[in-house]
Amino acid sequence: MALPTPPKLVLDEFISTALSATPQELHPFFEDFRSLYTRKLWHQLTQKLFQFFDHPLARPYRVDVFERFVRDFESKINQLRLAEMGVKVARDIENPQVHLEFLTSLLSRIDTEKSKEAHVLLLASIAHAKLLYGDLEGTKADMDAAWKILDTLEGVENGVNAAYYGVAADYSKAKMEYAPYYKNSLLYLACVDIDKDMSPEERVVRAHALSISALLGDTIYNFGELLMHPILDSLNGTQHEWIKKLLFTFNEGNIGRFESLAPLFPKEPILQENYPFLRQKICLMALIESVFKRQANKRTMTYQTIAEETRLPVEEVEHLVMKALSLKLIKGSLDEVDRTATITWVQPRVLSREQIGGLAKRLEEWVNKLSKVEERIAPEVLAQTS
Predict the structure, then answer these.
(1) Domain region containing 24
(2) Rounded to two decimals, what is the model's pTM?
(3) Residues 41 and 105 in one domain
(4) Which residues form the PCI domain (predicted)?
(5) Are residues 45 and 100 in the same domain?
């Protein structure tokens, strides 16, 4: 429902019209608007407007209040807060062309020098709108323009970063680019409160997409940040819970558990389609785990040992190790004559409870050995000092 006013704001007429057109519960807001506007308390008026825009009953009136009231004094309020208001109310504009025109018009009225953050926020929001409407080229252009500014800023507010990384992640998702989606989506989550800023449904969608990207990303072999993030708990009790188990299975390099979960892959066609890649990936993770479990002085492994650990034919071991070396998952060398691999370094990653238990056991063994050495050399040291 529109709240008509003359071209130039006439405060009393606007308030009077609003009071007659809106529910009783919203009337105190308009009375406060009148008082704060008259007293030129722009900061307090901004705060009151945000409260109004967040009120459930205000949704049908948000665009009209912004266009017919806020625009009259928008140059007097914080430009970033103005941009945030505009982005919020723009969500109520269903017509794609009008939606973009609204945001583009607001962007043209923002003084970039006064608030580069506001400029970035609106560029990212325009990019997201274009993405929703299928304009991938326009989305990329606006994303690049936003990043050019964002990359020069320090101490950026979370909401601005979230707007950029959110559209960057969604753009990568539309392009089916798994590694960029994974990176940008985690950066987006670092800027939001998932309990306050995301609905339960949005959390499940995000966790599911992150899990798929982690599994299918050809450069992603460390799931630690995702495994520790509470967003992953959103999959508990859903049809996707088994995918969470699959992530931990990969992190542990557990081929047996991978094979036990493989019959569920048809539930997720994209995983089924990429089964050969996933099989190679779990073999690489198994190799990493096999190296990790060994003591530093016992990391020269025969091809036969690696074949048993990764459940691969011996003739495929050399290719697997070379793949791991090229991905920088391990460092070391191959001896083609003796058919052995000497590993000097393995990529760090987040450990499961079982892996931590194994590490603790090895540390205990190392401490025991050290104690025995001390017991052996102590009498000799004492004899020399006496």
Answers:
(1) 7-51
(2) 0.87
(3) no
(4) 180-348
(5) no
